[in-house]
Structure formats: structure tokens, C-alpha cells
Amino acid sequence: MTESQRLFAVTIxxxxxxxxxxxxxxxxxxxxxxxxxxxxxxxNRILDYTMQHNTSGLMKDIDQLFPNLSSVNHSPYxxxxxIVFRDMQDYINVKNDPHYMSVVxxxxxxxxxxxxxxxxxxxxERHVAGGQLVEG
Length: 136
What we know:
Elements: E1 7-14, H1 22-43, E2 48-53, H2 56-59, H3 62-65, E3 79-85, H4 88-96, H5 98-107, E4 118-124, E5 128-129, E6 132-133
Antiparallel strand pairs: 1-3, 1-4, 2-3, 5-6
Helix pairs in contact: 1-5
């Protein structure tokens, strides 16, 4: 894949705001915040928007998932959100959209611990999709 064909991705390593219940956090980001954002992403022809929810219930069983490792470092994040854009300009367009600025961005105050949340930016590869190998 040439650099001009690379997709641009943002991954957010998310922490919930202090004092917010874990279940309430996951429900909020899945239902309320995602609803604020997903229509804007579709309007801007964004390719993918996914959430991985890390819960204390799942994390307590992680040692069973990896029994042969001497230790497993548990992630301190409550979730990982990945959004895949066609290019960096699409990301800029979403961030500059009036709906993002007036609804999506201010909504972060309802659930996010901004100082503890980390963001990663980079190009995106897919090797398996829909149970099939992705070639080229």
C-alpha cells in the first residue's frame, strides 16, 4: 500500500471522569455520545467507528486468557475508540464541523477524564475483515 492510499486513524485510550460509575460510563458512551457522533461521521464519509469496552468484570479474568504469561499488565483505560478516516483532511473537517464544536466536543465533559485520556494518530491497516483475509 502506498502512502497516498493509507487511511488515517485516531485511537482514543479513554478514561471515565472521576466519580462516574463504570456501567453508567459504558452506557453513556455507547448510547448518548455515539449517537451525537455517528451521524456526523457518516455525513463526512468516515470509514469506521468502533469501541472496545474494558470493564473490571472482564479484566478480572484476563489471567485465564493468558495463563502462560508470567504477568499481564492490565490496561488502565476504560475503553478504546478507533475512528478511521480516508485521510487527515477528513479528520480536520469533522473537528471543524459546527455539530462537532457545539454538541460532540462539549459532551466530553459529561463522561471523559480529559487529562488522563490519550490519543494516538497514525495510518491504519486491515488484515482480516468479515472473517476473510484482506489482500494488498
